[in-house]
Amino acid sequence: MSATTAIDPPDSELVRLANKPPWYTSLFVQLLVAIVAGIAVGWLWPDVGGSLKPLADGFIKLIKMLIAPIIFCTVVLGIAHVGDLKSVGRIGVKALIYFEAVTTFALLFGLLVGNLVKPGAGFSIDPQTLASGAEAVAKKTNDGELPHTVEFLLGIIPSSVISAFAENALLQVLFFAVLFGLALAKFGEHGPPVVMEFIDHLSHIFFTIIGWIMRLAPIGAFGAMAYIIGQYGIGSLGSYGKLIAACYAAALLFIVILAAIARLFAGVNLWKFLVYIKDEMFLALGTASTEVVLPRIMAKLTNAGCSRTTTGLVVPTGYSFNLDGATLYLSICVLFLAQALGVDLSLGEQITAVLVLMLTSKGMAGVPGSSFLALSATVAAIGHGAIPVAAVALLLGADRIMDSMRVSVNLLGNCVATLVVANWEGQLDKERMRKVLDGEAVPPLEDPDPMAAEDEFDVASRG
Q: Membrane spanning segments where (predicted)?
């Protein structure tokens, strides 16, 4: 019998290495190549890049068509298994408290950065040159407007169940799913198991389709990046260099703050978590959309120890109430506009801006040109005559470049919110989380969960 030396890997490790998929099958590698290729095409052949937007639009539409049914199945199954109305209420209240605290901090943090960096200093814009700005903003926003607070809250209640799904209104779908799940849970052991089984099978089917669609993710990311660079050009980076640098620097600092929150309030190492969700982060960055990764983020959070109920309630709600990146960007832009016009906003006017943005930022999700509408409402509320609402048009050249910053912070902020609320509610399996983030093998979830299942492409993506 031959002795095994200390440097010889165990048989299980040899089997794992032998079965390891080739590096080029990793979704992370494919997305990285696609994003770099998209930037190159948009830079070298801007006309070609500008025509590739349908690739991104098609991929995003494929994902969006499944988001509503996936949220419905996930929330219904999670609540039906818990069967506790008080628990659902606690999760919702805790999530909203967290959202309000963190987004308010993001607004104040953005003001701090804007006052220190002064991204608009040196522009010296003449207000008389902004005569056509209002028309440009109206075109960008399709003459829309943000809903008022009461209108926004009433909008959570769907006019019909069918319209909620047809219009892909996530909060409305979530509202109906909570009611349906609670009604199903009320039956308890005497309830119709066939309904639960049917919804469970449906969720598996939807996630299988998502697995197929994700094969097209690199094509979508390539088209999105080629369009952004081809349409807006690298030159815009120079014109708005200070603003862009300020926003991205603020985003990095805010991520450090999120890391501290995750460590203190959930015991989670955010760097390891970022490595765990790197595919989703790159896809969100490449397509400038967080919705395209919503199903996979929910799956990974659940697989890593967050309860299905918490994940199903917090993540979709966060898409409307927890826009950390967007609020950070908006507060910096308010100061940018004032500085570009040579206006010195008083402390009271800056506080007014924060109060207005606290309200307008909650109704931004799904509204075309929402950042421009929120800024227009804020400028109007400040009531400073030297800052015309048309000044918001100054940001048209840089807004699209900021999408990557906004979506990355929004996505990470929602993940941290889910971890914190799950831990707060005692529904975070920290030992499972530690093993998953360390790359260790974990047993299947005791409660069969469609979100934890991965198809062969997902497994290959991990490399």
A: 23-45, 66-83, 95-117, 169-185, 205-228, 240-266, 328-360, 372-395
Given this model, what pLDDT does residue 23 score? 59
What tokens were used for 69? 């049914």
Q: Which residues pair with 428 in a beta bridge?
A: 306
pLDDT in tens, 124-139: 655 554 444 445 444 5
Cβ–Cβ under 8 Å, residues 377 and 146 = yes
Q: CA–CA separation, 398 vs 406, rounded Å?
A: 13
Rounded CA separation 410/422 (Å): 18
Task: Pinpoint the alpha helices (H) of 20-84.
Answer: 27-44, 46-50, 53-82
Inter-CA distances, 24 with 124, 225, 276, 284, 439, Å:
50, 20, 18, 20, 20
pLDDT value at residue 21: 63
Taking the CA atoms of the chain, what radius of gyration do you get in angstroms? 23
Contacting residues for 206 by C-beta, under 8 A, at least 6 apart: 66, 69, 70, 73, 295, 450
Residue pair 337/243 in contact (Cβ under 8 Å)? The answer is no
Angle at 188 between CA 182 and CA 189, to 5 degrees: 155
Give 194 or 323, the one with higher predicted confidence: 323
Give the HSE-up count for residue 383: Cα atoms under 13 Å, Cβ half-sphere: 6
Which of 357, 386, 317 has the alpha carbon at shortest distance from 108?
Answer: 357
* Longest Cα separation, the chain: 90
Predicted TM-score (pTM) of this structure:
0.75
How many CA atoms, within 13 angstroms, populate the side-chain half-sphere of residue 96? 6
Q: Would residue 120 be called left, alpha or beta, if left means φ above 0 and alpha means ψ between -120 and 50 degrees?
A: alpha
At 77, is the secondary structure helix, strand, or coil?
helix
Whole-number Å distance between alpha carbons of 167 and 388: 34
Q: Which range has the worst mean pLDDT, 61-65, 139-143, 211-215, 334-338?
A: 139-143
As a whole number of angstroms, the distance between CA 23 and CA 314 comes to: 34
166 vs 64: CA distance, rounded Å: 11
The DSSP call for residue 446 is S
Only one residue has tokens 């419905």, namely 72
- Round to whole Å and give the CA distance between 43 and 160: 46
Cα(108)–Cα(181) distance, integer angstroms? 38
**What is residue 383's three-state secondary structure?**
coil
Query: Residues, the chain, total?
Result: 463
CB of 433 closer than 8 Å to CB of 302: no
Q: Which two tokens stand for residue 354?
A: 């924060």
- Pick the most confident of 16-25, 228-237, 417-426: 417-426
Cβ neighbour number for residue 297 with a 10 Å cutoff = 21
Q: How many Cβ atoms are within 10 Å of 183's Cβ, its own excluded?
A: 13
Q: Which of 53, 29, 71 minimizes the C-alpha distance to 291?
A: 71
